[in-house]
Design goal:
The protein is an alpha+beta fold and about 190 residues long. The protein has one domain: 3-Layer(aba) Sandwich (VC0467-like). The chain contains seven helices and ten strands. Helix 6 runs antiparallel to helix 7.
Length: about 190
Amino acid sequence: MEYFEFKNIEQPQKGDLLLSEPFLPDQNFERTVILLCEHNEEGSFGFVLNKLSILKVDEVLDEIGPFEADLFVGGPVQQNTLHFIHDIDELKEGGQKIRDGLYWGGSFDVLQALMQKGKLENEKSRFFVGYSGWSENQLQEEIDHNSWIIARGVHPSYIFNSPPETLWKSILEKMGGRFKIYANYPSDPNLN
């Protein structure tokens, strides 16, 4: 299994993607891709991009009317909260810039108006219940123990438009080298 040992040479930054290593035993994060929305001395947080919930957005927000966008499970923390990321001009004001082409949050009134008018593009937005969070130094410790692989520079359109069920694998394949091997390793090698 030495081939599956790696050492992150990158330090995590806001806007990076964190890919769980293939053998991470935590069911909350098995083969997940997390968008890191904040990373500083106080801690870190982000959203799992590839864990689809069984609900649609309009099933948890009655007041918006029909809006059948997918709803994702952003992580195990505060799953009674709703969050969204986007690249929508009308929502940038009031939102937090994660990096070019990627924002978190914005005016709920503007969001609601765009939904009701049918002008909110699914290809430029994603909704989450809950989030993934780390206390001070916790994420760095997990990275030092090789729980996470850092991917940098993935284009926002790839984040919004890639099928969630193949996102983890496709990013690892694009990273090439040993990561391409990780992408094709079975979830449970005993069943192989």
